[in-house]
Amino acid sequence: MASLITKTDFVRYTQCPLYAWLWKNRPDLREGYHNSRIADQGYEVEKIAYKLFDGQDVSFQAEAKTGKYLARADILKNDDGKLHIFEVKSSTKKKTEHVPDLCFQLNTFRDAGFDIASVNLILVNSDYVFDEKVGLEIDKFLKIENLTEEIFKKADGFRLEMEQAHKVLTNEKEPSVTSLKKTFKYPLPPKFAEYYWKDIPEFSIYDICNIRKNKLEALASRDILRIKDVPDDFDLSDPQKLQVQLTKEEKSIVDRDAIKNELDSLEYPLYFLDYETINPAIPFLDKQKPHQQVVFQYSLHILDEPGGKMRHVEFLHTERTNPI
Questions:
Q1: Cβ(114)–Cβ(62) under 8 Å?
Q2: Distance separating alpha carbons of residues 283 and 243, to the nearest angstrom
């Protein structure tokens, strides 16, 4: 059983203690797992960010370790004895999960004896436009957001949760939680997902549309897991109540008049379009922005008249040029 927890362990813990424990202590459930394309993009952006600090006194993946915690800063800059943390993200703006991430780093580095002067995020600039004649302009592609004031103010508030996370994640016993996390940023490995959801029945409370964590916890704490067992007077939105009612009655609602009116409003020729896109964080096509959706393929079926013969046209872009 590992005695240390990492920043990634802690961020997973803030999402769901069981999820974090299984990921850390049951590697067998991740058999055959590979990083997602999004995660791989993050590593590529990080390598590019290193070039912002050419010629400066910096350490990459600088490590801080205490008796309980291990943190690695993507970039640690030494500026006349003052240390500055830079965390690289492939997103275009600060996200909720970035705060516990940075607070864990700050607390760990401080406890390990480092005097941290600032905490910063390096993000992708969504307004940047790639010019193939110039190439990737790193100082324009990336932007630095100084979060020192916010993280310094919030860091101590995460210390208790860090202690709890260490206690749970280094325990040999699998933790029990009030409710599971409904969705994750990246898909769970198949074996992992099967185990994580093993006690959840079909048509469960987790299938209720747009249900919030506090509602899930309120139901799960009463051992209510099936939609059919949700009390009629439980506080839900109107669409959620309708879903629960129809599930209990094993019915569905089909507005045939609305469907007919919609179909009657269509004018020939009819077009049936399917297309595929890419949205890389690092643009490589002329006039492309970071994360911009770029269509590179389509398949189009055309019906010119009622009862007519369906026509088909298609397009696949195979060159390294902008297909738009």
A1: no
A2: 42
Q: What span, in angstroms and rounded, lies between the C-alpha atoms of 189 and 29?
A: 7
134-192 confidence digits (pLDDT tens): 999 999 999 999 999 999 999 999 999 999 999 999 999 999 999 999 998 888 999 99
List all residues 6 or more positions away from 70 whose beta carbon is below 8 Å from its beta carbon: 4, 5, 6, 7, 63, 64, 108
Q: What is the pLDDT of residues 20-36, one digit of tens each?
A: 999 999 999 998 787 76
Supply 198's token pair.
């093993």
Please state, in angstroms and rounded to a whole number, the distance separating the CA atoms of residues 189 and 192: 5
* Residues 71, 7 contacting (CB under 8 angstroms): yes
12: its two tokens = 């997973």
Amino acid in position 156: D
The residue count of the chain comes to 324
Q: Rounded to whole angstroms, how far apart are CA atoms 4 and 299?
A: 52
**Distance between CA 112 and CA 83 in Å, rounded?**
13
d(CA 279, CA 267): 33
Cis-peptide into 269, omega within 30 deg = yes
C-alpha distances in Å from residue 130, one per residue of 28, 136, 259, 292: 42, 6, 44, 11
Cα–Cα separations (whole angstroms), residue 145 to 93, 183, 260:
9, 28, 52
pTM higher than 0.70: yes
Q: Please tell me the distance from the alpha carbon of residue 87 to that of residue 212, in angstroms, as a whole number.
A: 30
Judge whether 289 and 309 are in contact, CB under 8 Å.
no
pLDDT of residue 1: 61
Contacts of 231 (CB under 8 A, 6+ apart): 224
CA dist 104 to 16, 158, 206, 295, Å?
17, 7, 30, 40
In whole angstroms, give the CA distance from residue 128 to residue 143. 10
Q: Which residues pair with 85 in a beta bridge?
A: 76, 119
Residue in the block written with tokens 């979060």: 147
